[in-house]
Amino acid sequence: MSMDTLRTEVDRSLGEFLDRQRPIVSGPDLAPLLNAARELLSGGKRLRPAFCYWGWRAAGGGDEPGIFVAAASLELLQASALVHDDVMDKSDLRRGMPSAHRRFQRLHEKSDWYGSAEQFGEGAAVLLGNLLLIWSGEMWRSSGLPNLEATQPFHDHMRTELMCGQYLDLLEQAHGENTFESALRVALYKSGKYSVEQPLRLGLTLAAGGGAPWIEELCVEYGNRVGIAFQLRDDILGVFGDPVETGKPAGDDLREGKRTMLIARTLAAATPEDAATVRRLLGDPDLDAEGVDKLRGVIEASGALDECEEMIARYLEESLASLDDAPITTEARSALADLAVAATSRKT
Amino acid sequence: MSMDTLRTEVDRSLGEFLDRQRPIVSGPDLAPLLNAARELLSGGKRLRPAFCYWGWRAAGGGDEPGIFVAAASLELLQASALVHDDVMDKSDLRRGMPSAHRRFQRLHEKSDWYGSAEQFGEGAAVLLGNLLLIWSGEMWRSSGLPNLEATQPFHDHMRTELMCGQYLDLLEQAHGENTFESALRVALYKSGKYSVEQPLRLGLTLAAGGGAPWIEELCVEYGNRVGIAFQLRDDILGVFGDPVETGKPAGDDLREGKRTMLIARTLAAATPEDAATVRRLLGDPDLDAEGVDKLRGVIEASGALDECEEMIARYLEESLASLDDAPITTEARSALADLAVAATSRKT
Predict the structure, then answer these.
(1) For residues A308 and A265, is the Cβ–Cβ distance under 8 A?
(2) Which of A170, A321, B3, B100 could cross-link B125 (Cys pair, CB 3.0–4.6 Å)?
(3) What is the distance in angstroms between the CA of the first residue and the CA of the last residue of chain B?
(4) Which of B27, B260, B263 is nearest to A182 (CA)?
């Protein structure tokens, strides 16, 4: 199955699921919630559904409608995380459009309502994120696949782990200085696990029921590594990404003071003067284009950018090698290889 | 079963469930999340579990361990709503203690961490609320009761409805002037449904499987009415409650500008001068004790307080009368009658 066909199936499943919420989320007052959900779900690379779907296929699953429902539900979890993330970071933009809380704030302002528009926007976005979170579990279960019950513990685990990972991410920024080890932990738990390893594990387990040893091996040797490389790419895009492609302002992670592997490696290798510059500018909400350029220069000069690119290349290479040993079809092997490349070399 | 014994079973089930999260929510970094969850769950009236349990008993269920697990899971949903509510309202206190986001803010301040302590507190509380929300569904399903699958659609419905109800509540404050009809809708959807009617329906359906007509009748004639009366009592406590009992500052709802039935009736019946006073003072975040007293005086003088008390009394009376026709045991009838009284005459 091509990525385009998969995308079409995922889109259709999401549309049908949201339509089924209409009797509850009904009337003009509640329409903005459902509209916001639809818009949020209209974009995205559908990587998580793809890892889930190809896990399923790798373990012998066929093209049943249920797998598209299960895989698509992961987009709801992701959308929930993005909406809440933007509230927590007070981000104005997401994929080049106003973030959900800013949209609700704007609705308040346009409607000339009472009270603080900002507070209304944040409150509405918290609730929208909650709906998406609830729906992700509901849609997952609605797939009706036979091994749902055996897979549910992994699904539960993934969601708790994601929230813990995001908390570790908050802590990492709060702690200031970070280490290679702590940066790797955050990359894995706030993103790598639920973006790659867990969707893959869910798909594999949905098809195979119990966990054959090769399944766990594939999750760790391939999924875990692609997951970390996926987040390292994200870290690089957060600093060097093209705003036109990422839909976020240039150097947004620098302004937010994100403590990533890129930063940990920069501080470890930079000259004392350059390190002082990083400590001074990183996390300055008013950082301008000149400041962004300055920090980018220091990160490049320290060798940290090259090091992170090498890490990504190494993780990718090892993950691809691990596919050779897995007892899966040629089609699944080739699709997972393509996905690993797509997830780690993306521009958005 | 006495309310005290039920409480013990609920407490034990919650403790065991949280213990099972330890392998994921592990280590000193994540401990504050689990500790905060434990503290949040140590208090509360356990009304929602009680309505669920007595629904189960009313439809013929016995004292199996699973029902305590299912009933207790409703406390996780409630705790999640409280944590997020306090973030959305920027409330400092909950049950006389600092609210969750203020605790995390304090942790940041005490630890002398980087960045905004307030933003860290809010972010951590959003994540804590998410964990509690996820866990409420996970614990519910872990009860292992035979009719779980038949009941799941009601459970899903309840959670989506709760988020929509909370959004309607935000809208109600934003709209300013409200009507009896809109106030009733908000009272029902933001609180009445998930506090009384839905827990009752879940318990009944868990025991009976499909929905016999008397079950739906009991949910509407009894559950719906007790739910509205429950929230009307909440509205009165938010204005006239004793801070020692409620754990919230006196007149907190007035400062937050909550547009409740009490306020709708006040504005409909007050003299033009008094109505102008309400419009001027309601929602003033700096409202002092004198202002609170002034507003209380206007609400009482308008007759709105008496009207709301009469509404509660009428809903209670009708709900109690509906119990007479239900084909349930004397023990369940008496317990549900006691619960209706407790839910509508409480001081906290």
Answers:
(1) yes
(2) B100
(3) 23
(4) B27
Label the pairing between strands A93-94 and B93-94: unpaired
The answer to whether the Cβ–Cβ distance between B130 and A127 falls below 8 Å is no
Contact assessment for residue B294 and residue B300, using Cβ atoms and an 8 Å cutoff = no
At B67, the amino acid letter reads I
- Contact residues, chain B, for A123 at CB < 8 Å: 88, 170
Closest CA to B51 of B30, B74, B28, B81: B74
d(CA A319, CA A197): 12
Task: Give the separation between CA A75 and CA B2, rounded to whole angstroms.
Answer: 45
For residue A130, the chain B residues in CB contact (below 8 A) are: 84, 129-130, 133, 163
- Do B178 and B264 touch, CB atoms closer than 8 A? yes
Out of B39-43, B217-221, B330-334, least confident range: B39-43
User: Are residue A255 and residue A129 in the same domain, yes or no?
Assistant: no
Query: What six digits make up the tokens of B25?
Result: 């929510």
Q: Is residue A89 part of a domain?
A: yes
What ipTM was reported for this prediction? 0.96
**Residue B140's domain spans which residues?**
1-43+65-144
Do B137 and A137 lie within an 8 Å CB cutoff? yes
Question: Is A107 part of the contact surface with chain B (CB cutoff 8 Å)?
Answer: no
Distance CA(B190)–CA(B164), nearest Å, equals: 7
Residues of A in contact with B158 (CB under 8 A): none
Shortest distance, CA B9 to any CA of chain A (angstroms): 24
Chain B closest-CA separation from residue A113 CA (Å): 5
Dump pLDDT digits (tens) for A136-151.
999 999 999 999 999 9
Q: Which residues of B205-215 are buried (b: 16+ CB within 10 A; e: fewer)?
A: bbbbeeeeebb
In the three-class reduction of DSSP (H, G, I as helix; E, B as strand; rest coil), residue A346 is classed as coil
Question: Shortest Cα distance from B115 to chain A (angstroms)?
Answer: 6
3-state secondary structure of B209: coil
Which two tokens mark B270?
């007050």
126-145 in chain B: CB under 8 A from chain A: 126-127, 129-131, 133-135, 137-138, 141
Question: Which among B30, B108, B123 has the least Cβ separation from residue A88?
Answer: B123
Kindly determine whether residue A160 and residue B134, on different chains, have CB atoms separated by under 8 Å: yes
- Is the predicted pLDDT of residue A346 greater than 90, yes or no? no
pLDDT score recorded for residue A80: 98
Structural domain ending residue among the three candidates B119, B144, B169: B144
* Pair (A186, A312) in one structural domain: yes
